[in-house]
Specification:
Helix content: 40-55%
Number of strands: 11
Shape: globular
Number of helices: 11
Largest sheet: 6 strands, antiparallel
Distance between the termini: 12 Å
Length: 291
């Protein structure tokens, strides 16, 4: 497998962020990653395919995504889009955009949480996009730099207070963990260390000194996922990472990521990732370039 392009962005040390607005008929930039946060907006892009980590989705007429991890590869490609005028607005800003302390203030609580979640990549629903559209629409053409800055802050604030969807799985994105209870952290670490083994609810509950039923409720309340769904997400993330970064055959990857049946692995992968493991690998290989 070839390496992912590491983009050197045009963000200057003298600017808070970099904005580019383009009108295009196709996407030609390859799969890439960069250290900067990126907020990417697409208009008139129905049918465009968005790849963020191991998330592959076909977007509607409007798409807005926030990418926030240096190791998280991503790309937008034509897919089945045939629009004669795709509008794309890209905003990139440095990880230290807010400095050392400001994100710790109460007024920035929702923005801090959103930027943390962006380690996995985030997409925003249409109603959130429409709430910030009037800012996005004029941001690149705003002549006053301070007014431009205020508009951008309004965009981040509005988006952080609405809903958003996490895109890449934790094990694929290599993201750090949020602050969690010691019990949840202990269980997650155990799962990451033993995801290829037989993991049972009884064993996880015993690990943290709880009854299975109490632990099941506790884990769901703290993570938003059942234990079985979380384990499946971790296994799929590791499988996707092996498909991208190794030359192992799919059968090897199936068993090494904790699945004990190849046909079941293929079925679940397609259901959760929208493509078969073979097609997923081929798509990533097509979008990679040697650097």
């Amino acid at each position: 497998m070839s390496e992912v392009l590491t983009e050197i962005t045009q963000l200057s040390d003298l600017d808070c962020f970099y904005i580019a607005e383009r009108h295009k008929t196709e996407f030609t930039y390859p799969l890439h990653r960069h250290r900067e946060f990126e907020l990417n907006f697409i208009e008139h892009g129905a049918g465009v395919r968005r790849i963020v980590g191991d998330s592959i989705e076909t977007v509607g007429d409007y798409d807005l995504a926030l990418i926030g991890a240096e190791n998280l590869e991503h790309v937008w490609e034509n897919g089945v889009c045939n629009s004669p005028d795709i509008r794309e607005i890209t905003i990139q800003f440095a990880p230290d955009f807010f400095g050392d302390k400001i994100l710790e203030k109460n007024q920035f609580d929702s923005i801090r949480k959103m930027l943390k979640a962006a380690e996995h990549g985030l997409s925003f629903p249409l109603d959130s996009i429409m709430r910030v559209y009037h800012y996005l629409d004029t941001l690149a053409s705003e002549p006053d730099h301070f007014s431009q800055f205020l508009k951008f802050m309004c965009i981040l604030n509005e988006l952080s207070k609405g809903e958003y969807k996490v895109l890449a799985s934790s094990s694929f994105a290599h993201s750090s963990r949020n602050q969690e209870s010691r019990r949840v952290t202990k269980v997650k670490q155990y799962i990451n260390d033993h995801y290829a083994e037989d993991l049972r609810l009884d064993n996880m509950a015993e690990l943290v000194g709880m009854s299975p039923s109490a632990f099941s409720r506790f884990f769901k309340m703290r993570t938003g996922k059942s234990l079985s769904d979380y384990i499946l997400d971790i296994r799929l993330g590791y499988a996707a990472r092996m498909l991208v970064d190794s030359t192992k055959n799919i059968s090897e990857i199936c068993y090494e990521s904790g699945f004990n049946n190849l046909s079941n692995f293929n079925r679940i992968f397609k259901s959760k990732r929208g493509s078969t493991p073979r097609d997923f690998r081929a798509l990533y290989k097509k979008n990679k370039i040697i650097v």
